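Team,

Forwarding the record for the chain on the shared tracking sheet. I've put the sequence and predicted structure together so nobody has to dig through attachments.
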Amino acid sequence: MSESKKIRVAIADDFTILRQALQLVLKDQDDIVVVGEAADGFEALDLVRQKEVDVLLLEPLIPKKDGIDLTKDVVALEKSTRILILTMDKTSHNAFRMLRAGALGWLPKTVNMDQVLEAVRTVNSGKVYLPAELQRSFAERYVRPESISNPEEQLSDREFQVMRLLAQGNTNREISQMLYVGVKTIDTHRANLLRKLGLRNNSDLTRFAIQNGFVKF
């Protein structure tokens, strides 16, 4: 198969060993070629801007740029890059937010490589790829939305982003610089999310985020 007809894949993950392992498997596929890799969100966005990428394998908790914003930014480039999330995060809530932002597939890093290859080919064809447990969770969300009672469901995407960044130890000023908004706006988001989640302070927030798998260390 000619290079021009192969699925052009880029890998965005902060773990070097995982990027290398994925490359070793992907490069042996007749219909896939790896066109680049990135260790943080800014590198990933630059990679998609500069190269033709059919499928971006993305860890949404990648450093320097929130996965939700990164997904929206890639979609806004209008380059037909399909985003496949590959993450240790197994929560349906995070998956729902990422797909709503524009991702086309979601896989936990506990899957085998055959499933990764199947997912790459599926999203490249323009179809959504979800593991069975997420399909069931999404069906439940659609059929019986009143059954969804997770407190984080009340958060807007921006409040959800601020929650994760605060839980990672960032100050309000640092978060304002990351998200390109004023410090007072971050103060407001923090107050709102603490109220919605019934938490008192950043220590409670960090504990909540870790227990629910919203951040990694």
